[in-house]
Design brief:
elongated, D-Maltodextrin-Binding Protein, domain 2, 5 strands
Length: about 375
């Protein structure tokens, strides 16, 4: 009876906690759906810029069963530029018989580079094999007409393929490919959680209520909290960034100052978002519930993984997408401030928006 009473009380308590029920039912479905699209290779689209290549090779690339290959035709300058600007994953130039093939690759994501390189190499090899089969067939027809003709062997040679990496390298490690976005994700996660829980404790302990009773403006209160929590977040960000670059030896093609700028903006955005969502929680457990609903979807959609089904478009509405884009541009591609200006503006804009919403919640709380 006692066991039943305790279990019944817990069940009734959870049943009336709508936030917990939503977490239990909805969050796992969202995460599993994203995981499915991460590992669903069919339907993934890659763009190849063709400088010159036989039609048979282009047809082989387009007819690939595992990936959706989009082919565009450009001059060498435009093709390399397309790879450099992220408009194509690779550019290819081949002889008429595919005996020699040159590939220009965007190696900022090593796994994607390996996939598209394999598709191009397989397509070139298929054309070479088909040409050899045609040659053998023609030879047999010639020998049938002239039995006295000497036997001639036709060697099945492989195409001579060379690859040049515009970004990254052929032997790029997992850390080189995914390390840059992961740095931003780790900073975002810890700052969000620490700031949210600390701001929640300020509210639960009555400290925030006492501050609201003073003449201090709401904007001043929010700015004070952001500066206070932000000081720790900035220190954490600097230590983490310097550690992965100078201790772990992660690839750093661009400016360390630009990386620090983006990571600090990421920390401020995570800080203000954590403070905002903490107003919807009444306990640390409820604050933790936001992780699968707010943090995990951003990690999946920030560009760290290539998602099929158009899910990558959803990432453009999340702050972590711009963090990953900027860190990859600086650390892997060696780009400068002008190339990450939009990402920096969006992150700063998110922080300002979250601060404004925080001020709005404080206005409601002060009125109560």
């Amino acid at each position: 009876m006692r066991v039943r009473a305790i279990a019944g009380r817990i069940i009734n308590q959870l049943r009336h906690d709508k936030r917990t029920m939503a977490l239990v039912l909805a969050a796992p479905l969202i995460v599993l759906t994203l995981v499915y699209f991460v590992f669903q290779t069919n339907g993934q689209t890659f763009t190849v810029s063709v400088i010159n290549a036989p039609k048979d090779m282009v047809s082989e690339m387009k007819s690939n069963d595992d990936y959706d290959i989009t082919v565009r035709h450009d001059s060498k300058k435009d093709a390399v530029g397309a790879v450099r600007n992220g408009e194509a994953e690779a550019a290819v130039s081949a002889d008429k018989d595919c005996s020699r093939v040159k590939i220009y690759l965007d190696g900022s994501n090593a796994s994607d580079a390996k996939v598209i390189r394999a598709v191009i190499e397989q397509s070139a090899a298929a054309v070479v094999r088909d040409n050899a089969k045609d040659a053998v067939h023609d030879l047999k027809k010639t020998m049938a007409k002239n039995p006295a003709a000497p036997d001639i062997d036709i060697e099945m040679s492989e195409p001579d393929i060379t690859a040049k990496y515009i970004y990254g390298s052929e032997d790029g490690s997992f850390l080189d490919s995914y390390g840059a976005p992961l740095i931003g994700a780790i900073i975002f996660f810890f700052v969000f959680l620490i700031a949210g829980i600390n701001f929640l404790n300020e509210r639960k302990g009555g400290t925030l209520e006492r501050i609201l009773s003073t003449p201090a403006k709401r904007s001043e209160i929010i700015a004070g909290y952001v500066l206070g929590f932000g000081a720790l977040a900035v220190v954490q960000t600097i230590v983490l960034t310097l550690f992965v670059v100078y201790v772990l030896g992660m690839t750093m093609e661009g400016s360390i100052a630009a990386v620090l700028l983006i990571n600090i903006l990421t920390a401020v955005a995570a800080l203000t978002l954590g403070m905002l969502l903490s107003t919807l929680a009444s306990s640390e457990f409820q604050m933790m519930q936001f992780i699968p609903l707010v943090i995990l979807p951003q990690i999946f959609l920030c560009g760290l993984f290539r998602l099929s089904g158009g899910w990558d478009i959803a990432g453009h509405f999340m702050p972590l997408y711009y963090t990953a884009d900027a860190l990859t541009a600086v650390m892997v591609k060696g780009l400068g401030y002008s190339d990450i200006a939009l990402d920096a503006v969006v992150l700063a804009g998110c922080a300002v928006l979250f601060m404004a919403l925080n001020a709005g919640f404080l206005k409601r709380q002060r009125a109560i």
